[in-house]
Design brief:
Blueprint lengths: L1 H30 L10 H36 L15 H6 L7 H33 L1
Helix pairs in contact: 1-2
Keywords: Metal-binding, Zinc, Zinc-finger
InterPro entries: DksA_N, DnaK_N, Znf_DskA_TraR, Znf_DskA_TraR_CS
Protein name: Zinc finger transcriptional regulator, TraR/DksA family
Length: 139
């Protein structure tokens, strides 16, 4: 098991280094874009704004990935790595090689995503009902 942990730690450290490089590259390219001076026509401006928003979204994802990697490295140090946070069973090494910072086994992750999807649908339905009730009151 020690060899597998060493292998996973090496994978996580490499992934962390690559993620930090991506964030740095993103920050540098983002700072090259002037934000105060409009340039080109309205379509160029809209495209630039979309690119900037996409860059910010990707930065958030990269930061989240970095946080997950750091958590996984900490779990290795605390000898808790590779244990599902939901069922406390061992996460198969095949899954960890694909997603080295996985917090859940495949079954638990699927259950969590299913619950999240149901909750999202419920919240959307409730929001639509509230909108419909608001429109009826206006009429």
């Amino acid at each position: 098991m020690v060899d597998k942990l060493d292998e996973m730690k090496a994978i996580l450290l490499k992934m962390k280094e690559e993620t930090i490089k991506e964030i740095s590259k993103s920050l540098k390219s983002g700072s090259d874009i002037p934000t105060n001076e409009p340039s080109g026509d309205i379509y160029d401006q809209a495209s630039s704004e979309r690119d900037r928003e996409l860059g910010l979204l990707l930065d958030d994802r990269e930061r989240e990935k970095l946080r997950n990697i750091d958590e996984a490295l900490l779990k290795i140090e605390e000898e808790e790595y590779g244990i599902c946070e939901e069922c406390e069973e061992e996460i198969p090494i095949g899954r960890l090689k694909i997603v080295p910072f996985a917090r859940y086994c495949v079954k638990c992750k699927a259950d969590i995503e299913k619950l999240q999807a149901q909750t999202k649908r419920f919240e959307e339905d409730r929001a639509y009902r509230e909108i419909a009730l608001g429109e009826e009151e206006e009429a």
